[in-house]
Amino acid sequence: MEQEIRLSVIVPVYNVERYLERCVASLLDQPGTNLEVILVDDGSTDGSGMLCDQIAAGDRRVRVIHKKNGGLSSARNMGLEQAVGDYITFVDSDDWVEPGCYAQALELLEESGAQMLCGGRYDVNADTGEKKLGLCPTETKCISGKELAGKIFLWDHCDSSACDKIYRRHLFETLRFPEGVICEDVPVIYRVGLLAEKVLMWNHPYYCYFHRPGSITNRAVSEKTFHFSQHARQIYQDIREHHPDIEPQAHYLLVRALSHLLLMLIQSGPETRRRYASQIRETRRELRTHTGFFLTYGWFSTKERVRNLLLAVGIYDRITQQKHKE
């Protein structure tokens, strides 16, 4: 009888022929872990789909799903439908993980009785190959799922990334990633945390996040630029209604999202600013309603308070435009 699969690793694949083998090799270099790697070919137009099949032919732990292009969320959701492991994790196909990390992580999860693990990551520069420590818990300890949600909202040594975490499969029984949007982790992972009774914070950077210029998070201003702030508004309302004890943390996330959006719009070119002039005005007005919060809560630095205030009243716009003229 075959041993039951402990970990399902879901890897969405779209036009990453150059990086895929490195990613999968790191997943298969995990001694002591009975895992399956689910490669979801999301309608790739390069050789990625064929490469997925070649990799699967060489290792029985790899399964391939070919589907019509639907985006990252669609591919992850397809993987969730097919996963059979006791635990689930996600890896983006241009990223990779450190050798032997999964066996250690699963052992810690079993020992702690936690339903979810939040680890750390390295940020890798695609141009230079430089590898720097990114977000990582400061110590290995167990916290509640609600505490994790609060930390995610504050970027307190962790964030909403789905990839540097491991989950008991049942946590995703009723949850799926929203399709047709970016920043799809933001409205989902905090909910997963809230479903977990206990979360293990692991002071170990095991995930390597490869920052390349053509990735989703490095695109010019478009309608998708507004998705992050839309998610933050929905989260704030959800937390205010159902978990008011962490409402300030969700409020912080909303303010950060609004200020980030304004900065992106204001620092874009003149044509983009004209196209989104009404959104700039509306976002500035919304940020202004939160002035009392960002001026008084200690989570904001003095620099952030001043910048947010200048953004809210429209002075930051004029300063930025004047610098561009000079």
Please mark out the parts with pLDDT under 50 across 5 or more consecutive residues, or reply none: none
Biggest β-sheet, characterized? 10 strands, mixed
Give the integer mean of the pLDDT values: 94
Radius of gyration: 21 Å
Category by helix and strand content:
alpha/beta
User: What global shape is seen?
Assistant: globular
DSSP summary, beta strand count: 10
Order of helices and strands: EHEHEHEEHEEEHEHEHHHHHHH
DSSP strand content: 15-25%
Distance between the termini: 73 Å
Count of discrete alpha- or pi-helical segments spanning 4 or more residues: 13
**Which bin fits the share of residues in helices?**
40-55%
How would you describe this protein?
It is built from 13 helices and 10 strands. By secondary structure, the protein is of the alpha/beta class. Strands 1, 2, 3, 4, 5, 6, 7, 8, 9 and 10 form a 10-stranded mixed beta sheet that branches. A hairpin with a 5-residue loop joins strand 6 and strand 7. Helix 5 (145-154) packs antiparallel against helix 6. The radius of gyration is 21 Å and the shape is globular.
